[in-house]
Amino acid sequence: MGDRRGNIAIITALVSLILVFVLGVGVDYGLAVDRKAQLETYADAAALAAVTPAMVAAGQAAAITKAEDVFNAQALSLGGIDYNASGVTVNIATSGNQQTATVQYQAKSNSILPGIMGSSGIEIGGQATATTTLAPNIDFYLLLDDSPSMAIAATQSGINTMVANTASQGGCAFGCHEQAPWEDGLNEDNYALARSLGVTLRIDVLRQATQDLMTTAQSTESQNGSTYRMAIYTFDVGLNTIEPLTSDLSQAQTEASNIQQLEVYSNNRLTSSDYNNDEDTDYDTALNGINAIMPNPGNGTKTYGDTPQEVLFFVTDGVEDENVNGGRQQSVLNADLCSNIKSRGIRIAVLYTEYLPLPTNSWYNTYIAPFQSNIGPTLQECASPGLYFEVQTGGDISAAMSALFKTAVQSSYLSK
């Protein structure tokens, strides 16, 4: 009987030990699951930190370091695990316009019963990924109207000043630039008059807005980790190169100071020997010319062999004045010229600097007023979807150009 009681005691002890071990293993497993869940959240945060715009712009090495730092700052302070800083690895992969960060980690959840049946802890590990769409590389070709109509005063008060000081001309709101104003019975041309009166013309505002745009572009490309190149052209009777395509946006900003109003010889004369009947806004030459210059667009990705997306940035008051089939034509532009460009996959961003109605001017009433209401809609048809802005007289052209630029950049994610 005594021997039997001894056997029962031994069995009870063994069962108790097994129960304690099983219970300990269960607790260890539960703790390991909780600790793994914590590490998973740290890995998620680290992967996301590696694909922010700032990290994309900083480059892969910086993004990897950032992800490691984010994970280790939290994992090293988590209790109940065996982990060191080398337990995390980060990989950055780029494919097309996608960049993916993968964070992998390895650690051990410590056991509450170390040494029992060889249990020193439970290995835990895992990974997290995060993907971002990369901002594409873009070439911007600026096509800026410098024809005589851009010599209108930039504000209503400036217009009033010009009208008040040109009574002998019937009240002219334009600072037209003439080399030989005496041919029209004037002592000085209206451009010089505007300067002497301190009147800012729309061409002056356009010049400054173009320079300001380069600052916006530099800031945006830095934030996005992209490359933006700029080319600047003006148009009047022809297409004029201000700055060929360049990635040096500071240089482009400097060259933009050379945007000038077209200077004619006198009324109706481009030069002393060229009586062109003031046909000084040639959209056909401008748009066909820029179409020939611009290359076919790529996707703008970082993939080897890919090329930038292409955007035509078109700023104009929307009134054509050119010779068509041997006669002067004043009209809205031919939207087919824009369609030819867009058919190549080039996007067109249009800023319409509103053509100011001048109901007291007989020339305006005869030639422009009949189609005034169609100017805006025609330019909107010219623009790619979502890339049409208007700015009225007295409006902030610089702010409008910046807003249109940012819209073009944002829409570039969806353009391919």
What's the quick description here?
By secondary structure, this protein is α/β, with parallel strands linked by helices. The protein has helices at residues 2-49, 53-58, 60-75, 156-164, 190-197, 202-224, 249-255, 283-293, 336-342, 362-368, 372-382, 397-411; strands at 81-82, 88-95, 98-110, 121-133, 138-145, 177-178, 228-235, 239-246, 263-264, 269-271, 274-275, 309-316, 320-324, 327-331, 347-353, 388-391. It folds into 2 domains: 2-133, no CATH class; 138-414, von Willebrand factor, type A domain (Rossmann fold), CATH 3.40.50.
Structure in words:
The structure is a single chain. This protein is of the alpha/beta class. The protein has two domains: 2-133, no CATH class; 138-414, Rossmann fold (3-Layer(aba) Sandwich). It has helices spanning 2-49, 53-58, 60-75, 156-164, 190-197, 202-224, 249-255, 283-293, 336-342, 362-368, 372-382, 397-411; strands spanning 81-82, 88-95, 98-110, 121-133, 138-145, 177-178, 228-235, 239-246, 263-264, 269-271, 274-275, 309-316, 320-324, 327-331, 347-353, 388-391. The strands form five sheets. A six-stranded mixed sheet has the order 8-7-5-12-15-16, sandwiched between helices. Strands 1, 2, 3 and 4 form a four-stranded antiparallel sheet that branches. α1 runs antiparallel to α3 (60-75), α6 packs antiparallel against α7 and α8 (283-293) runs parallel beside α9 (336-342). The radius of gyration is 35 Å and the shape is elongated. The N and C termini lie far apart (89 Å).
